[in-house]
Amino acid sequence: MPANGVPTKITQGSQTKGGIGESTLRPDGTLKVTGEFAYSSDMWHEDMLWGQILRSTVAHAEIVSIDTSQALALPGVYAVMTYDDLPTEVKNYGLEIQDTPVLAHGKVRHHGEPVAIVAADHPETARRAAAKIHVEYRELPVITDEASAVAPDALLVHEGRDDHHAGHVPHPNVVHRQPIVRGDAAAAARRADAVVTGEYTFGMQDQAFLGPESGLAVPEEDGGVHLYIATQWLHSDLRQIAPVLGLPEDKVRMTLAGVGGAFGGREDLSMQIHACLLALRTGKPVKIVYNRFESFFGHVHRHPAKLYYEHGATKDGKLTHIKCRIVLDGGAYASASPAVVGNAASLSVGPYVVDDVDIEAIALYTNNPPCGAMRGFGAVQACFAYEAQMDKLAKKLGMDPVELRRLNAMEQGTIMPTGQPVDSPAPVAELLRRVKAMPMPPERQWESSEGADVRQLPGGLSNTTHGEGVVRGVGYAVGIKNVGFSEGFDDYSTARVRMEVVAGEPVATVHTAMAEVGQGGVTVHAQIARTELGVTQVTIHPADTQVGSAGSTSASRQTYVTGGAVKNACELVREKVLEIGRRRFGSHHPAWATAELLLEGGKVVTDAGEVLADLVDVLEGEAVEIEREWRHRPTEAFDLRTGQGNGHVQYSFAAHRAVVEVDTELGLVKVIELACAQDVGKALNPLSVVGQIQGGTTQGLGVAVMEEIIVDPKTAKVRNPSFTDYLIPTILDTPTIPVDVLELADEHAPYGLRGIGEAPTLSSTPAVLAAIRAATGLELDRTPVRPEHLTGTA
Amino acid sequence: MRVNFTVNGRPQEADDVWEGESLLYVLRERLGLPGSKNACEQGECGSCTVRLDGVPVCSCLVAAGQVEGREVVTVEGLADHAKQRAEGGCANGACGTSLDEAKAWQAKGTDSQTGEGTELSPIQQAFIDAGAVQCGFCTPGLLVAADEMLERTPNPTDADIREALSGNLCRCTGYEKIMDAVRLAAARQSEGV
């Protein structure tokens, strides 16, 4: 296998400084380190009001009455709105299924559902007013799991469903079901020399982006509204907001405000419609900023899941079959559940060759918090389970777990359970080899000349051990994630690129609606423009809805799709610039007609390096501007009975090795190192690529040993909506994360690149779990693992 | 109530402050200094870290009245932005971030000629150079905390850095580039660069 692949003709061939492949620095870096970058919660407007949302205190209830009179009477309160005040017949929204009420109508379906909204001149006044709204509830039994959802007498979370999944689901409390049947798993099982089964539990993870949901809605003179907002997809928000307001889309202007992280949690609307409603009602700008408590209620989470697996293999370690059933808890509203089901099903066997499979994935409607998109999107839960199974199988066969994986690793040409051939590099075995070959951290790394440094030990500064009872374990895992929106979705992006002379220098302006959420898309767009247009000065226009949709900053897709759109628009601009050049200067030099021409260093040059003209002279006073939509290869829906179909755009692979040390007496875990090897196709910005891999790895670590939203199974109420009780990794919890980046080009993708943001979040978790199993000898069939699971006190 | 205190070396007066307001709220909403961030408002994440009479504190946990007569340094004060603020169209210093200013900031995020013309502290420059900034929401608090640590401990070990920054949550980076940035700033500091 080649260590590196370079597709032919990936760029126009010029070498402009600051182009792709360089670790150029963020264009927003200075603003972000000086505190000047304007996040959505930093927006301010003269005469601005503050909005507040009243949320349900119970999970499932009929609303008997709502009395807003005391709230309205409070000085400083400008408006109080409930369902009855919604201006049009459109009162619901949703990404795919419009089942989510803007404000509760007669019923609440989960803890923290929005019931009423308030606008006041001070945030505390708004909070106090909301507290004075009296809502009388008549509580209903709660549906919290599969058994209660499909029980014969189960209440329906949504009555009278008419969405496009309603017809094929086994029960109205099942949002969507996707089976995948390929080969004959039952027959293949008879060939198996070893069979292992497992039942796994994946806890509810929160995106926990640090910038809370927030935005500013400013009413405009034409009766419209301008929303400054932190989101992952401006045009998707717009499509959902405008009908509820009763405004045409061109009267709802959207500008991306600074986004403090996303990780899937901003795919759904949060306060967007509420702020617009209050602004239009009061005629004043309205700002809404969630605090952390509200943020835990204000966005969807990662689906918790139950996963049932059976793996079989011959005695020499070849997989015979896999059967699995994945039950995802979608909570009260659909959000992205149907797509998460499709992902979980289609990626459920992992990056392995297995011809005979019997797979089913479903998402439930329950009264638990709504779940939807989070980094890894259905593939994370499956990876946790199938990698636990691979370790279990290796143990039963008496094989090395990495060797078993390499023996069954998929490669280019492997057929997925969906029947889709993997038609670009799939270096699964190579990634495992690389991650295993990395040097190991030294044993007893906590020892220093002054004795044990407790900061390096489980328990840390709690000073619970100086090494006594501490056992090391090492674990491996590898995963597969799809890139881009799947199952036939028209997953396009749009870019507008302009080239002109400003102050005597050629300048390119790139305008897209791409949501920069921290990933560095803006950095990469400028690099692409430099490479394709041969200029050094690139201006990134703020993202808004004055340009066509860029699609979502999700699914590891933006560098591929909006990057692809920027590249395409740049190429068209380049052609036009060369046309102008030929018109103006064609008669001066024959090369204009005969040679391959490039734009480099602000000049038109031949591929032999001869300078034909300065771009400044070519453009003179003229500006060249092109806006174009760009699409990757189309995908197909999965067959609803067999799951067959070329459903995915591209696959992305990462492998991890975790080294942990466990205080076996107290059940405390310290992850010492989490090494990662990932194929990125082409690293457009190596510094950012490594940053994505390390960040994704850390979120996987979080859900391995600490992160879980606890929902009371009796009441469906959230017990830990705060950073005091929902713990994410600190710098003390996070180990060193050495990264080995492999670049095997995908010839179907721009520059050969591969979407990279999510794959590292998959394999990180099972690698840590495997390491803890290795250290403790325990089975550990759930994540996160807490001390009580390691000490037998759960 | 009225609160008088010093922010980044400048005397400030905030009027009509409700007694329940935090220092963070007064900085962000009344003094036009939104650099200190409001990620949790419960003292868990460190995004609002400022120095109060030199000591790093979560400004969300400090009642505004407590800072009467005291000195506060925010991320804005880590380098000299006083001039820009004075020209920012907020004559009395008693308003928040105006939308026009906010838009201007956004629009200024143009190309990658990062840092040109802006005076940055070594820790700020190191965060940019090392790739320690992604979404950037944790960055101001981390900068204030890291800057204070380097003041106390010019040559920190990795364990020192982790301990000093353990009160600052970051969700994007996995902290590796933050470690790199602090090591870089310490190295540049000791070399006198």
TrEMBL record, chain A:
Residues 1-26 are annotated as: Disordered. Residues 34-141 form the Aldehyde oxidase/xanthine dehydrogenase a/b hammerhead domain. Coiled coil: none annotated. InterPro entries: Ald_Oxase/Xan_DH_a/b (IPR000674), Ald_Oxase/Xan_DH_a/b_sf (IPR036856), Ald_Oxase/xanthine_DH-like (IPR016208), AldOxase/xan_DH_MoCoBD1 (IPR008274), AldOxase/xan_DH_MoCoBD2 (IPR046867), AldOxase/xan_DH_Mopterin-bd_sf (IPR037165). It comes from the Bacteria. This is Molybdopterin-dependent oxidoreductase. It comes from Streptomyces actuosus.
From TrEMBL, chain B:
InterPro entries: 2Fe-2S-bd, 2Fe-2S-bd_dom_sf, 2Fe-2S_ferredoxin-like_sf, 2Fe-2S_ferredoxin-type, 2Fe2S_fd_BS, Beta-grasp_dom_sf, Diverse_Oxidoreductases. Keywords: 2Fe-2S, Iron, Iron-sulfur, Metal-binding, Oxidoreductase. Residues 1-78 form the 2Fe-2S ferredoxin-type domain. The keyword Transcription regulation does not apply. Pfam families: Fer2 (PF00111), Fer2_2 (PF01799). This is (2Fe-2S)-binding protein.
